[in-house]
Structure formats: C-alpha cells, structure tokens
Amino acid sequence: MVTAKVWVLKKHFEGFPKPSDFEMKQVALANLKDGELLLESVFLSVDPYMRPYSKRDMKEGDVMIGTQVASRIVESKNPAFAVGTFVVANRGWRTHFISDGKDLNLLPASWPESLPKSLALGTVGMPGLTAYVGLFEICKMKPGETVLVNAAAGAVGSVVGQLAKIGGCKVVGCAGSDSKVAYLKNIGFDEAFNYKTVASLDEALRKASPDGYDCFFDNVGGEFASIAINHMKKFGRIAVCGAISQYNDSVPQKGPYIQIPMIFNELSMKGFIVSSWHNHREEGVKALLKWVLEGKLKYHEQVTERFENMPAAFIGMLKGENLGKAVVKV
Ligand SMILES: NC(=O)C1=CN([C@@H]2O[C@H](COP(=O)(O)OP(=O)(O)OC[C@H]3O[C@@H](n4cnc5c(N)ncnc54)[C@H](OP(=O)(O)O)[C@@H]3O)[C@@H](O)[C@H]2O)C=CC1
Ligand SMILES: CCCCCCC/C=C/C=O
C-alpha cells in the first residue's frame, strides 16, 4: 500500500496567503482495481489562479487545487498506460494518486528526451497556451503592431512577448525587478521597464511606445491596467488574462473607470479562460513545442525542491520571487 502526502487548505486565505493556511497530511491509497493506475508526481505547478479559485471553489480541508502535474506511472492495471510513461494530470497538491486514465494527457509523442518534462506545466503547457490563445485569438495580433504585456517575466508573460516577436510585432514588457527587466531584453523584448521603480507608469508607457499600443495582454489589472488603457491606439485590443494585483485584496479596489478611453478609441476588451479554448490545445502545444525546439521560444523555470515546500513556492510566486514558470520538483 502507498501513502500519499497531500497539502490541504486549512484556513481560507485572508489577504496574502501564509504558511499556517496550509496543512500537510498523509493519505493511504487503496490497492489498484482493474483499469486503474498509480501515479507519482514528479513536478507540480504553482499558479496564480489557485488564489482566486480557492475562494470560489474550495472549502477548508480540501486538497489544494493544482493543475498539470507532470507525473510518472508507477503501477498500471490499465493496458492503455504503460509503467514509466509521463503524463499531465489535474489532481491537486499530491505526491501520489490513483486514476482510471480518463483525466490524463500524454506528453506529445515528439517530446524529446533532452527537454525538461516540467515544461509541460509552463511554456509548453497551460501558461504557454494562455499566451497563444490570448495573442492569436483574443488580441488578433498582426505583424507590425505594438504589443504591451505586464508580469512579463513570468510563465505567461515571457511567452506572450516572444510569440509577439515571432509574429513580427514590437514588444514592450514590464516586470518587478531590474534582473527581470534584463531577462526580458535578453529574450528579445524591444523595451522593458521595472514598474516598481519608474517615477511614473504613465511616462514609462509613453516613452516605451510614443505612438501607443495596438494590443495589451493584461496579466495584472488594477492600477497598471487603468493607466495603460489610456495608451491604447485607435481600435486597440485588450486581452484580460489575469488580475494578480487584485487577488489578495480583502477590500475590492475602486476605479478609475474605463468607459471614456474605450469609447474614444473604439477599443475591444475581452476576458478569457484558457480551459474554455481546449479545442486549440493540440494545435497550440504543437506550435509551442516546435518554437522551443527551434530555439525561437526561450524558457526559464524557477524550481523549488521538495513537496514539503509547495506553500513556500506558491507564496513566493505571488510575491514575484519567480523568473519564468514556478514549479516544484518533488
Ligand atoms: N485567463 C487564464 O486562462 C489564465 C490567466 N492567468 C493569469 O495570468 C497572470 C500571470 O500568470 P503566470 O504567468 O502563471 O504567473 P507568473 O509566472 O507571472 O507569476 C506571477 C507574477 O505576477 C507578478 N505580480 C505579483 N503581484 C503583482 C502586483 N501586485 N502587480 C504586478 N505584478 C504582480 C510577479 O512578477 P513581478 O516581479 O513582475 O511583479 C509574479 O512573478 C496571472 O494574473 C494569472 O492569474 C494565468 C493562466 C491562465
Ligand atoms: C484544468 C486546468 C484549468 C486551468 C485554468 C486556469 C485559468 C486561470 C485563470 C486565472 O489565472
């Protein structure tokens, strides 16, 4: 019999999550029945959505939600899944779990041995797909346009900027430290600035693109988005992807309000959730993997060692300690 370690939400987050909001437990797993398989998590993802989704979907005592666990099959009574195969699953913060195979995604057959499997949680996984859908389907980016992205050195933002360059656009990004800004320049951003240290966000946005922005991929919301909307060009498009600046608010932020710039510049603004675009998954993963293998799409991972450190990795990511995709190596 295998005993799994799991992290549960002990106490609903109030403001910023803290270590005492989590509790690690041990769960004995049953023996496998025919058709089932036992999986071991190798890498786990920590993502911003866990913060707002915990409030909306979870109750205290539930296992922490967690998507895209790159896992290894250790025992199988299901002929469709061989022992040793790696898959992506959506089973929360657990070291081991049992599946009937229906909720598992195999890595693409063309996945080379040399490529970290953890990329299936980041650049070639859900965050990469988010960038792909947001740029190509929501912003409908065209060559020659100027694209703005915030949280640009993170899992989604770093892919957004590079896909925009692949698509022939000028790219402006911002991030919360000088070393992140240097990284953005290194991976091909045309302009980048540290939103925490510029004297004026308004000035920084104007200086980076005096003519304004055709596309704005918004990962942050709040004050940044309120200022950026005034820098959109006529008929600009805004992909509302995330609002991380608001996830830990106990009291909702108030305006400024967006109607006037929306009207004057005839802007389009559309929120989206990547999982609703699952019909683009196969095409998107294939394209992302190809660009990674061609060296056109660079990646960086912030790897935290040990399952015991899941809460620290999650809290650290919310604080901006990650460069690229934050993952935990079990
Ligand atoms: N709509 C969808 O389907 C999806 C939406 N998302 C959203 O995309 C965004 C990025 O996610 P992801 O790439 O996984 O995460 P990241 O890897 O970008 O990590 C989060 C980053 O957000 C930045 N950040 C944290 N707090 C603030 C703040 N108050 N103001 C500005 N920046 C902040 C930090 O970077 P810094 O140092 O630069 O501050 C931090 O590193 C999130 O809002 C997330 O919820 C993600 C996936 C799917
Ligand atoms: C089954 C995986 C679903 C992931 C959806 C993530 C949506 C994120 C929203 C904001 O961060």
UniProtKB/TrEMBL annotation:
<comment type="subunit">
    <text>Monomer or homodimer.</text>
</comment>
<keyword id="KW-0597">Phosphoprotein</keyword>
<keyword id="KW-0379">Hydroxylation</keyword>
<dbReference type="Pfam" id="PF16884">
    <property type="entry name" value="ADH_N_2"/>
</dbReference>
<protein>
    <recommendedName>
        <fullName>Prostaglandin reductase 1</fullName>
        <ecNumber>1.3.1.48</ecNumber>
        <ecNumber>1.3.1.74</ecNumber>
    </recommendedName>
</protein>
<keyword id="KW-0644">Prostaglandin metabolism</keyword>
<dbReference type="InterPro" id="IPR014190">
    <property type="entry name" value="PTGR1"/>
</dbReference>
<dbReference type="InterPro" id="IPR020843">
    <property type="entry name" value="ER"/>
</dbReference>
<keyword id="KW-0007">Acetylation</keyword>
<dbReference type="InterPro" id="IPR041694">
    <property type="entry name" value="ADH_N_2"/>
</dbReference>
<keyword id="KW-0521">NADP</keyword>
<dbReference type="GO" id="GO:0005737">
    <property type="term" value="C:cytoplasm"/>
</dbReference>
<dbReference type="GO" id="GO:0032440">
    <property type="term" value="F:2-alkenal reductase [NAD(P)H] activity"/>
</dbReference>
<dbReference type="GO" id="GO:0047522">
    <property type="term" value="F:15-oxoprostaglandin 13-reductase [NAD(P)+] activity"/>
</dbReference>
<feature type="domain" description="Enoyl reductase (ER)">
    <location>
        <begin position="15"/>
        <end position="328"/>
    </location>
</feature>
<dbReference type="InterPro" id="IPR013149">
    <property type="entry name" value="ADH-like_C"/>
</dbReference>
<keyword id="KW-0443">Lipid metabolism</keyword>
<dbReference type="InterPro" id="IPR045010">
    <property type="entry name" value="MDR_fam"/>
</dbReference>
<keyword id="KW-0560">Oxidoreductase</keyword>
<dbReference type="Pfam" id="PF00107">
    <property type="entry name" value="ADH_zinc_N"/>
</dbReference>
<keyword id="KW-0276">Fatty acid metabolism</keyword>
<comment type="similarity">
    <text>Belongs to the NADP-dependent oxidoreductase L4BD family.</text>
</comment>
<dbReference type="InterPro" id="IPR036291">
    <property type="entry name" value="NAD(P)-bd_dom_sf"/>
</dbReference>
<dbReference type="InterPro" id="IPR011032">
    <property type="entry name" value="GroES-like_sf"/>
</dbReference>
<keyword id="KW-0963">Cytoplasm</keyword>
<dbReference type="GO" id="GO:0006693">
    <property type="term" value="P:prostaglandin metabolic process"/>
</dbReference>
